[in-house]
Design goal:
Length: about 325
């Protein structure tokens, strides 16, 4: 763990570069904000096997969006002051939020919740969400490079295209496109793209969005995706707990998406319970687990906010980087 051990209290600790709050202390920061998200809407935002409740939204995500609203507002003030100082009339670019964490830790649910809640604040109604899955290399290219078993590792992405995408966003371009990934076919969809049209806030969700820039051959360092983030969130939990959640999700998919004849994973649909558990554990232990330990977990200390989950999937404490 970076900065804090896996055990111990998190009640108002302020030493080090972060401020930490237990869930109870954090929940008080919502003040009188009204939760307008319904149970029905929450159900549509949750990923499979994710038990996030309205209490979780009220006590964790609502305070987080209040803090984010402050960041958005003061970033706007800084933009205006900068324009005045430089004697410019340049329009403000989207406020970009990165959401990182392991496979099966709940990044997608967190990202969709932030999108829905932030869009309810009157100051920034246009909030869009893009996942980095669309920037994975196509399966044929992964096969050609011998990277199919490293899908999700940093080298399996078109990192230049992803960096260009966020640079275009931060350059203020009116229309910026991103490829589309289909989880059913487990591949990029040829010829399809999404268009991002100058949102107030853009959320970018992915395993490796907090990766530092890679050193060049000459020893210099280029730009990283996270260099263009205004705020970032890392979803954290014990590695063994995430492994269990991954197995549970795999078993759930075996009964649903894997049974679709169009699915890349139809071969897993007929596995027995024991075979399915063994297969999921093998995939975790050889791909997702190593990726977490080697590439994802080391980026946690780069986040603006860390949301720490307990073994029951509920967030226990929150850590915010000091300004």
């Amino acid at each position: 763990m970076v900065g804090v051990s896996e055990a111990g209290s998190h009640n108002g600790v302020t030493s080090g570069p972060y401020v930490e709050r237990s869930r109870a202390d954090w929940a008080e920061l919502a003040n009188s904000a009204t939760l307008t998200l319904t149970q029905e809407t929450l159900a549509s935002l949750r990923s499979m096997q994710d038990p996030t409740s309205l209490d979780d939204v009220r006590e964790v995500y609502l305070p987080l969006t209040r803090l984010l609203a402050e960041y958005v507002k003061h970033t706007g003030n800084l933009h205006q002051a900068s324009n005045e100082f430089l004697r410019l009339s340049v329009g403000r670019t989207p406020f970009v939020i990165g959401v990182a964490g392991s496979v099966a830790v709940g990044k997608s649910t967190t990202s969709r919740l932030l999108q829905s809640l932030l869009a309810r604040w009157p100051e920034h109604p246009k909030v869009e969400l893009v996942t980095t899955d669309g920037f994975l290399l196509p399966n044929a290219e992964l096969e050609r490079r011998g990277l199919m078993n490293l899908k999700g590792f940093p080298e399996s992405y078109d990192r230049r295209a992803l960096l260009r995408f966020v640079m275009d966003i931060k350059s203020g371009k009116d229309n910026v496109t991103a490829p589309v990934y289909d989880h059913l076919s487990y591949d990029i969809v040829p010829g399809r793209e999404i268009v991002v049209r100058r949102p107030d806030i853009l959320i970018i969700e992915g395993l490796n969005v907090l990766q530092p820039a890679r050193p060049r051959a000459d020893g210099t360092t280029g730009l990283a995706l996270s260099d263009f983030f205004d705020f970032s969130v890392y979803i954290d939990a014990r590695t063994e707990a995430i492994r269990e959640w991954y197995v549970e999700r795999f078993l759930g998919l075996r009964e649903t998406a894997f049974r679709d004849p169009r699915s890349y994973f139809t071969r897993y649909a007929t596995l027995t319970d024991d075979e399915a558990v063994s297969t999921a554990e093998f995939i975790w232990d050889t791909i997702n687990g190593p990726n977490l330990v080697k590439n994802v977990l080391p980026t946690r200390g780069r986040a603006t906010a860390v949301l720490r989950k307990g073994d029951d999937h509920h967030i226990e404490w929150v850590r915010i980087r000091k300004l």
